[in-house]
Amino acid sequence: MPPERTKLFVQIAVVILLAAGVIAIAWHLMPDRAEVPVGDTKVIDAAQQTARFPPPRAPVAPPSDESILSSVTNGSVTIRCEHAPGASATTPYKEVPPPSDHDAATNADFTLVDGRVPPGYPNPLPLLQDGLMPPNADERTANFRLAIGSGEGRVKIDLHKPIRIAQINSYSWHTDIRGPQVYSVYGSNVSEPGYNPRPLVGTDPASCGWKKIADVDTRPATGYVGGRYAVSISDSSGSLGTYQYLLFCIQPATKLEGMGHTFYSEIDVVE
Ligand SMILES: [Ca+2]
């Protein structure tokens, strides 16, 4: 083979190898294809679909003001859930009070202790304390949510002083599998030996000075998964405890396609 032709073949081979390398790197970095961390969360079989794209969708409820009420009691703590599958912006609240813009969390400091929020959007944490629900069921810019493909995230609330907490209320709304709420909430106060003010994912808050208040999981066993979820945590004594800090350990509601991080609209802390 003439030297010129050999040189040409080598150049073509180098170009092909470089192109393959670039494609492999780009594929690896694509967020929608990120590997979903394996946790101990349940997976909702929201749909029997097997196609990888678009992501599986749960049935969307027809518009309705009807709500499904449920409650779970563990010891003295009760978690009430009001699920309105076909909610609109004007659907009334029944057992759970509507979001407040003058509760103990209104002027609190919300920080992301661990986890990832979607890139390219403004800081979504203030959306959790503005007292507002989004105008409709699929509003990326009006809800706090963790990034596609990410695992657990942790949000801390500093109430600025210890407060006797009567209720913790949380609100979410999405058309399908990003509606239900799955989180654990802990409370703490001033530092003590071994106290960790910012326990990262993988660290049990209960092992470093935090007291678990409740485990919330509003995923329905059957029926419509989407809709508006209003959750109220309370205690038969009238107080969940006196805390300055709250820590929300938020899990995806489903690991299907890594799309399952809930659209949280508001977190209220009621004295
Ligand atoms: Ca509020």
Could you name the key traits of this structure?
30% strand; 1 helix; 2 domains; binds calcium ion; Jelly Rolls; mainly beta; 271 residues; 5-stranded antiparallel beta sheet; single chain; 10 strands
Q: Can you describe this structure?
A:
The chain folds into two domains: 1-33; 62-270, Galactose-binding domain-like (Jelly Rolls, Sandwich), CATH 2.60.120.260. The protein is 10% helix and 30% strand. It has one helix and ten strands; from the N terminus they run H-E-E-E-E-E-E-E-E-E-E. It has a five-stranded antiparallel sheet, with no helix packed on it. The chain has a five-stranded antiparallel sheet with strand order 3-4-9-6-7, with no helix packed on it. The chain is globular. The N and C termini lie far apart (86 Å). The structure holds calcium ion. The site of calcium ion has 10 residues, from strand 10.
